[in-house]
Specification:
Number of strands: 0
Largest sheet: none
Helix content: over 70%
Strand content: under 5%
Structural class: mainly alpha
Shape: globular
Radius of gyration: 18 Å
Order of helices and strands: HHHHHHHHHHHH
Amino acid sequence: MNVRRTLATARRVLLQLRNDPRTVAMLLVVPCVLILLLKYVFDGSPQVFDSVGAPMLGIFPMIVMFLVTAVATLRERTSGTLERLLTMPLGKLDLLLGYALAFGLVALVQGVLAFGLTVGLLGLGVAGPSWALLAVAVADGLLGMALGLFVSAFAATEFQAVQFMPAFLLPQLLLCGLFSPRAEMGTVLRWISDVLPLSYAVDAMDKLTRQSGFGAGVAVDLAVVLGCTLLALALGAATLRRRTA
């Protein structure tokens, strides 16, 4: 790993994003709009929003980051940019860490905006510390980014990259405990749920809305999400191809 090359890659990605206002709007505005819609869908049942608002604060940014990073990385490869970059003294890990740093900054801004809207303007009740809720929301965005970088290696077109969302994200959404408590699931489904990172993100959000303080359980859940993020980045570096066959 070369820090200078990693930072140069991150700078290049951020400059590309600055010149693409539609992508920036999707990253920063869409999660806020979805949370706002969720609030008004359950306007007559505020207790429902209090129950699902915190998990969705992490889920919506995760989905958006997954889509954008998967398509952006694939576009680099199909356009030949990735192949040209890797002919220079730039390692795969430098490249992916540069992407992770750039989109990580975006995830931080995204998380702050969504958090400010959900907790500040929409009045979501949180028993735990607000900074912990923000940390989990940002970690979810980073997880979506890492998974997007990883799956882009297995797609040949941007359409295929989008198709990976049902395969990678929807099973996690169904089994994370948002729709049905994980303890009430069948044994096999519960085992699968136990190895999915989104389950731990939702558990952390749920604990922060019900329990005061930053307990050991939340710390473990957050560590699992961040560990899965690092694992996805490592697998992405190992499977990254110079170009699409």
